[in-house]
Amino acid sequence: MKLDDAAARLEALGNPTRLKIYRSLVRAGAEGMAVGRLQAKLDIAASTLSHHLKSLVVVGLVTQTRDGTTLVCHANYDLMRDLLGYMVEECCAEGSCAPVVLPKVA
Amino acid sequence: MKLDDAAARLEALGNPTRLKIYRSLVRAGAEGMAVGRLQAKLDIAASTLSHHLKSLVVVGLVTQTRDGTTLVCHANYDLMRDLLGYMVEECCAEGSCAPVVLPKVA
DNA sequence: ACGGTATTTCCAGAATTACAGAAATAAAGA
DNA sequence: TCTTTATTTCTGTAATTCTGGAAATACCGT
After folding, report:
1. Which terminus of chain A has a lower count of CB atoms within 10 Å, N or C?
2. Residue A25: domain span
3. Using an 8 Å Cβ cutoff, are A17 and A44 in contact?
4. Domain-embedded: residue A60
5. pLDDT tens-digit readout, A26-52
């Protein structure tokens, strides 16, 4: 992962509302969560939610699948793992801190 | 770590210039790096660097120690570890992804 | 105290972001 | 096709961020 991509993803997560959105999606697991449910759960304007979701989708942290009229959002675990891996690599680039083990995807 | 704190820290890292600054400091290891050397290395205006550094210091990711007229900056490894730990916890809150091992500080 | 180096603060302009109401679009069912 | 539900796009406003030049401050050596 390139530095600029990592920065863009960190920035996307670096907003309380978006971090809450992302957290909700992570906790929703593989089945994901519909935009409408997210809106009800987080109690923010639909347009605001849509913008934030777009930010997360653009950087790849969230994917969406349509199920009829509802759009289901999913956290992209693999990309999150990559991002954490990047941070760890940066952090440990010169043995400056203890090694961190990120598991392979099962 | 609270969600708002995590978001603030992610936001601080979520800018290419600041991520470069942070990476440089991480790679500088325990001895850190002076503001002036950072400026020469990254080739940005002193005032701009100072602003970005302040953002990193405010959220705790960077600490500074004075050595005469020069200010030496250090990456706060412990806090970074905590931040990564927070992300991992969020990510794995409901067993939604494989466990990630973050080492204890030696 | 003075001079020099290191760094920050002040200031301002350009660009971006956050937010939400209103209108537009997408999809499904009657 | 018409209606309803779900979601996005459009639009505008207020606030924030990024940037760097100029001036101010901090510290050291003499």
Report:
1. C
2. 3-76
3. yes
4. yes
5. 999 989 999 999 999 999 999 999 999
